[in-house]
Task: inverse folding
């Protein structure tokens, strides 16, 4: 397997050392090699390394340890640059709608995947920040993103301060379907999670959280219904406000 | 640069040879190594190789040449399997909302990026099918995707039948911003597109389309406003119907 794919893991503690300019440049060149819709490159990549701006961004990523990194790289769906070029050329751009959000988000995420593997080829570590979907309006404000530009993913990046083990995955048959979707039985679903439920890490988590099942740690501690709904409304409102929902 | 990233291109004509099982297995193992939200793996990968099903899928991808491949691999946001596990463990899953669509879509797209690079390491070629966002309800029906599972990306895969050149990209400064977003001037935007506008390929396109600018080929031929809006409504309705918008 490609070494960087096989050895990929999330890093949450970084050394303060900056990322050399030549390395960052190669990471960005790798990012733009990714496939994208119509070769329109309807995305932007904001590389933030200024200490004050990093300090401002940290709370948008819930002040997690990994939010404190030498660089936060924010990937945005961006139909603004392309639309302006259209206007300058006598064309009428109509990319202010949901299908273009989906396309531009896909392209931005594919670019991020390339950037990450290239970073890891240089010994850097990263962590994807799902919090980007929680606090997009605040990120928009800090990074001064204009209309028609919305953050869809961010990651922290730096030289790892600690060793991190590879994390486990569900068995392949849990996520892969042949030809069409086949609904797993309850017994199969239980078997997919059996190894993780039986692990010493889970035993520790249950004790620390005073809960009887790992599933309840997800639903009652990590990703709670009321938070999920509030973040959903907040992101969707921002999407509309940014001009990605005129349909 | 990582070889597979540097040499990545889209392939639209494939030989009929099937993908060996061991190669497909390694591609899928690479896919699941990607980062994902909470290590919940809220996605599913449907690998379609049955000739009749491939025949049914081709129109959903607009019968493009690349829709005729030995395999179509469809990546879905899937909160169904995880939610059922929660129910079996006395937990109340509340992942039927937009922020989980965004997270699961991100994870599915990251998985696809790994799969693609690993496929290319074996001499296979792929093409991302943006049409997945146009005809998701039809894909859902053909692949028998239940509620809480929605297609977010698909790709065709096989051994390339023809040689394909690397495509160009905008200059890096068009998509990269330092620290915060900096609005390009009109002159800068024009400079970003200058090389592509001046190319012999563009000259041919203008002639074939009887249009005066490349931008108008995008807005009047390739991605038209009325289509964009119709596909936007269609995908969003499907998202609601599938149970990803209870907020």
Result:
């Amino acid at each position: 397997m490609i070494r960087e794919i096989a050895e990929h893991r999330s890093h949450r503690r970084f050394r303060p050392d900056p990322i050399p300019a030549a390395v960052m440049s190669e990471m960005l060149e790798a990012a733009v090699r990714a496939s994208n819709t119509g070769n329109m490159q309807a995305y932007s990549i904001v590389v933030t390394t200024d200490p004050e701006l990093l300090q401002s961004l940290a709370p948008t990523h819930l002040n997690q340890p990994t939010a404190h990194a030498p660089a936060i790289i924010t990937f945005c769906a961006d139909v603004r640059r392309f639309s302006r070029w259209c206007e300058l050329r006598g064309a009428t751009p109509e990319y202010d709608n949901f299908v273009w959000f989906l396309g531009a988000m896909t392209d931005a995420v594919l670019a991020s995947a390339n950037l990450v593997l290239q970073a890891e080829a240089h010994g850097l570590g990263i962590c994807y920040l799902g919090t980007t979907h929680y606090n997009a309006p605040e990120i928009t404000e800090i990074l001064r993103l204009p209309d028609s530009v919305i953050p869809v993913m961010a990651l922290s990046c730096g030289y790892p301060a600690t060793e991190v083990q590879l994390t486990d995955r569900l068995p392949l048959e849990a996520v892969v379907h042949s030809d069409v979707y086949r609904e797993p039985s309850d017994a199969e679903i239980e078997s997919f999670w059996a190894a993780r439920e039986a692990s010493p890490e889970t035993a520790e988590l249950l004790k620390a959280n005073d809960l009887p099942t790992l599933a309840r740690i997800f639903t009652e501690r990590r990703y709670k219904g009321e938070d999920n709904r509030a973040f959903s409304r907040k992101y969707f409102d921002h999407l509309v406000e940014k001009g990605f929902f005129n349909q």
Remarks:
- The radius of gyration of chain B is 20 Å.
- The mean pLDDT of chain B is 98.
